[in-house]
Design brief:
By secondary structure, the protein is an all-alpha fold. The chain has one domain. 85% of the residues lie in helices and 0% in strands. It has two helices and no strands. α1 runs antiparallel to α2. It starts with 8 loop residues before the first helix and ends with a helix.
Amino acid sequence: MDPTSPFDDEERKSLSTASNGWLDDVGDILGGLADAAQDAERSLEDQALARRVVFDLRERIRAAAREIADRTNDLTIRIAHFQQE
């Protein structure tokens, strides 16, 4: 245990796991957005399809932003909780 750290080994491991999970999730979300952007590019030949794909892309972006904010808030709350103990 590091005497300068406010976290014990178990707390540090829990935060590390949460942080790594958050990073993996953000990577997955961004990968999904990249896939949606590629779909949008391919759909430009058909205007109706392009509108649907762009709408879907907007929804994915909104969902991704909410998910990233939720995950960030959760991680922040966990850190604050450990610091209070």
